[in-house]
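Re: that chain you flagged

S.,

Sorry for the slow reply, it's been a week of failed gels. I finally had a moment to sit down with the sequence you sent. For the record, here it is as I used it:
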Amino acid sequence: MKRIILPAFLVLALIFAGCKEKKEESIPTQPKENQNTNTWQKPDKNAKTYAELSIRKGDDWKPEKFGGGEFINVDSLQLPEGHSDHAYYIRYEGPGWENSQVGFRLYLDWRNAIDIWGKKTDTIVLPYVGQKNYEDYHHDAAWGQDILKAGQSLGLGGYGRYINDSVAHFRNVGKTVASVENNAESSSVFIDYDDWKTGEDSIDLGATFSIYPKGRFSKISLKPSAEIKGLTTGIVKFEDIPLITNESKDGEWGYIATYGRQTLVNDKDRLGMAILYKTSEIQNIKEGPYDHLLIFKPTTNKISYYILAAWQQEKNGLSNKEEFINSLDDHLKTLQEKGELN
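Prediction finished late last night. Pasting the structure tokens below so you have them in one place:
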């Protein structure tokens, strides 16, 4: 039998290739959505709206507390198995969206609450938040800070299901996929929840959050795959902060709102929060354990509402409760006339 003698460099190349293949097989891969980073672009300095989703850089997610490292922005993300609150995998815990006046973020975990970015500047700030130290955004900075303490509530306009005298959040979901989109007219966050289980029911739920160049509000739309009782949104309750309500003259639109000392900043700081809704979509208004709740009628149609936050320290902001309520009443008039705010 004729012997074949390979050059030494070729032998080494074959050995290296074989080891590399084994090594790559042993590394857990991220879901396809996590790797979709090639189209993300830093927002233009003159951008009027912005939405983003940013994750820890690396090939393998582990539920470890943040201790340094880099983040990369992605266009879409499927939550990895085992992800929960305070996992420090997603920068500031979920997607964020903003315009020149206000910003919001969603806790992309079982809590599913919406928090508020109080902004002192009218420029886009989210690409720079939480980059060096994960907790920085909880403290006062030149641009502003995270201002709402959501606790066990829905925050401002988060959603869940009112069942057995409490609100079920998103502890049991088969799959969660989030994505973001930016264009000249608006910025949006999209979330698809597959197999969301509450009580004896399981549904799919699609959610869209949109923000526009002007206004302190964001539009939220929910699309359930099946009718369930108790689909709800709400505003976090604070002691000694009364609920404010009103409806448009034609009765087709209404709002629930709160105003007062309800931020993390200091005891003198003032914040106004509101949800503007279509009255035909609401079954009742109810006090939950942690929230002022709007309970939606069971439906498979799209449900839409607006959340609004007015921070006293906002640049050219509303300075008192009267100005806040006047602003809400103006929004009711616009909704009555046009059927939308954007």
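What I noticed first: The CA atoms of residues 130 and 136 lie 6 Å apart.

Talk soon,
D.
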